[in-house]
Amino acid sequence: MIRPTVGIRTKSSDEKKLKIRKSKIGGKPDLPKDFDWPKSNNKSMLFCAQYNLSELTKFDKENILPKKGFFYIFLSLNQDWKEFNGINQPYKFIFSETENIIRTEFPDDLADNQTLKTAEIEYFQFYTIPDDENYKLYEFEKKYDDFYFYFYQPTDEFLIEELYNDSNQMHQILGYDRSIQSSVVYEFASKELGLYLAESSEHKKRWNDILDLSKTFELLLQLDCEDSNTDLSKFGGSGTYYFGLSKTDLENKNFNDIKMTFQMT
User: Which of 60, 85, 104, 223 would you label with 181, given CA atoms 20 to 30 Å apart?
Assistant: First the structure.
């Protein structure tokens, strides 16, 4: 069940020295000339990250993603607290095939303290196993005593220690979700069913529906707010954003219906 995953490392960078089209978190985005900046409640969203797919294609061992183009992430601020709230938060996950792009200035209604410092992204080969509460492990948990302690935990730790220089970073593309709480595929399914944040009794009643639907979702990308090379934490604390989509949409390279969820320690 070990799956190839695109690992992400970051390092602080000088925006002026970073070439256009480079994958990065924060800074000024490199966007198509006719790009319409996303808004929520008539307020411009914060630009969080851009991912140049041509830079990571050699690490996409399952040949899932397009060979070129960009992913862009924009997130909204809670207008009262001026921070990310993570709960039914407006967001925009954009796939653009356009490579004719320019470094773009921020909209006038984004204050200086509502922008993010620049961190350059470096991709590498990584591997993940399912979250310990993922449905794929149910049968193993039933069949083997102490499955978690004798197999799952040491395997997970080995992968991180051998392949990820900074095990605290939760950035990645594809593979299995490294969730802070329970596997995020259940949250993707809950959102699809309109059960996100519903009463626990309703969740229990519809658990089989959630479980069945969760099997149709895949993780696409994780964005870690606690990364010290960025200042995402000033808006998102210690949380991580997870973006996913249906397996069918991923196979068809359709990125128009992206689910988002947010987990914190």
Answer: 60
